[in-house]
Amino acid sequence: MIQVKNLSKHYPDKVALDDISVDFPAEETTAIVGPSGSGKSTLLQALNLLERPDQGILTIDDISLDLAKPLTSSQILQIRQKTAMVFQEKALFTHLNVMKNLTEGPIKVQKKSKQEAEAKAQALLEQFDMTELANRYPYQLSGGQQQRVAILRALAMEPKYLLLDEPTSALDPELEAQVLRVLKDLAKKDVSMIIVTHNMAFAEQVADQIIFVDNGSIGYAGPTDGFFHSKEARIKQFLGAMSF
């Protein structure tokens, strides 16, 4: 489980996170939703310390850090070894083909053998029916294919928790559907995922838990069904604004 307690992040002109406490269970899918600029991505990126909160306690499994204190490189590495991040931008290595994109991290960072890394990469490509992409370069892929490869690259590092920051926001609806199908398959396999998403239909279908972030605070944290059937005026207003 990932747990944050009393997490705060202030910028000179804005409070991004205001004393947030929330849990992210392992082997479940948590969707973080909320209006633009509400603090969703800040919360997600705080979980692997890409964003450094001003204060709060971050606990991932058996590791617990007081974020008000200076952190060592070793402590930050411990957190990041348990997580992998997928961003809106695919950010693949443009000079490497798909297979090498998937094996670069395991070989260079985790010191796995080329044979072991390639076997893992091949298994992932086969699992998601993407073997035909192995020798292609990013410029030869559609946006949806690039984002699916970015997800597999994160999975190749075998993280305990997969963090995704609006992974389909830059894609058209057809390509978005391709990526969402991959995430839906992962959710069925009980992969621990935390996803910032604007796609309410996807969140309702796939998420075990919804975290609603509004003006840097938690407006709801609980089962998906409870969120989508909430009688709270602010949640009803938000969901109404997301429908057309």
The CATH H-level homologous superfamily of the domain at 1-82 and 199-244: P-loop containing nucleotide triphosphate hydrolases
- Strand ordering within the main sheet: 6-7-8-3-9-10
What is the CATH topology classification name of the domain at 1-82 and 199-244?
Rossmann fold
As residue ranges, the low-confidence spans are none
Shape: globular
CA(first)-CA(last) distance: 36 Å
Quote the beta fraction: 25-35%
* Average predicted local confidence, pLDDT: 92
Helix content: 25-40%
Largest sheet: 6 strands, mixed
Question: Could you describe the 3D structure shown?
Answer:
- By secondary structure, the chain is an alpha/beta fold.
- Helices cover 38% and strands 25% of the residues.
- Strand 7 (161-165), helix 6 (173-188) and strand 8 (193-196) form a beta-alpha-beta unit.
- The chain has a domain at 1-82 and 199-244: 3-Layer(aba) Sandwich (Rossmann fold), CATH 3.40.50.
- The model has no long low-confidence stretch (mean pLDDT 92).
- The two termini are 36 Å apart.
- It has helices at residues 40-46, 73-81, 98-108, 114-127, 143-156, 173-188, 200-206, 224-228, 233-241; strands at 2-11, 14-24, 29-33, 55-60, 63-66, 83-86, 161-165, 193-196, 209-214, 217-223.
- A six-stranded mixed β-sheet has the order 6-7-8-3-9-10, with helices on both faces. A four-stranded antiparallel β-sheet has the order 2-1-4-5, covered by helices on one side.
- It is globular and about 50 Å long.
